[in-house]
Amino acid sequence: MIFLLTASIKNTSRRVCWVSLQPDGSVSIGLSDRAFVSPDFRAKHFVWSAFNRVTLHYAVPSEENSLKSIRNPHLTFHPPNWFHLTANDGKRLFEAITDLKIMLDQSNSIPWIRFVSKQITKLPPAGIPLKPQLTTILSIPLNDDKCSVGIGIDFMRTASGDEIPNTLFDQFIPWQDYFLRIHAVELAPQVATLSWFHQK
């Protein structure tokens, strides 16, 4: 099952990102924007504590000076405990383990991905999905075509959570025994930024 997130305004739709729920229970998030990372960026976290967790926040801005471009970067969680960020050449830039089940037993909401698009008019048109029979389009209604859109994706134990201020889109998608919460806000136009949280 694939969920394609598009931003819609003035009878046009722009592709923002996609969410893929895979048969083995994995979930992948892919971005329509490119991202830029330092050529020597690599991170691995293979130690995890259920009791003394530390939250790390990784951010990748799309500023081209001295950075390497990766097209359509995607983050994946493979149950029960493996996360990774993959570049367009298949190279893994981030790998880590986390026991998501224990975390969701302790908290209803675990933040995962935060993504800010570049200006909506600079994103590719939505077009027809590659696998329309497997794709559900989720449309984010915008008020300004010169804005950027901020996307958040969280792991949730239940299909409920605190209200998010100024949200244009907020949806819970069933996933395994839990839910993914996808939410979006309208932002001032800016460079695209991919960021994610990891607890270790």
Description:
With 200 residues, this protein is mainly beta. It has one domain (2-199). Helix content is 4%, strand content 52%. The protein has one helix and 16 strands. It has an eight-stranded mixed sheet, with no helix packed on it. The chain has a six-stranded antiparallel sheet with strand order 6-16-11-13-15-14. The longest helix has 7 residues, at 100-106. It is globular and about 45 Å long.
**How is the largest sheet built, in terms of strand order?**
5-10-9-8-3-2-1-12
Poorly predicted runs:
41-53
The dominant shape is globular
Mean of residue pLDDT values: 79
In total, how many domains does the architecture comprise?
A: 1
Write down the Rg. 16 Å
Total strands: the figure is 16
Q: How far apart, in Å, are the first and last alpha carbons? A: 29 Å
Largest sheet: 8 strands, mixed
Helicity, as a percent range = under 10%
Proportion in β-strands: over 45%
Count every helix, treating DSSP H or I runs of 4 or more residues as helices: 1
Question: What is shown here, in short?
Answer:
The protein has one helix at about 100-105; strands at about 1-10, 10-20, 25-30, 35, 45, 55-60, 70, 75-80, 80-85, 90-95, 110-115, 135-140, 150-155, 165-175, 180-185, 195-200.
Give me the secondary-structure topology:
Elements: E1 2-9, E2 12-21, E3 27-31, E4 35-37, E5 43-45, E6 55-61, E7 68-70, E8 74-78, E9 82-86, E10 92-97, H1 100-106, E11 109-116, E12 135-141, E13 148-156, E14 167-175, E15 178-187, E16 193-199
What are the salient characteristics of this protein?
mainly beta; single chain; 200 residues; six-stranded antiparallel β-sheet; 1 helix; eight-stranded mixed β-sheet
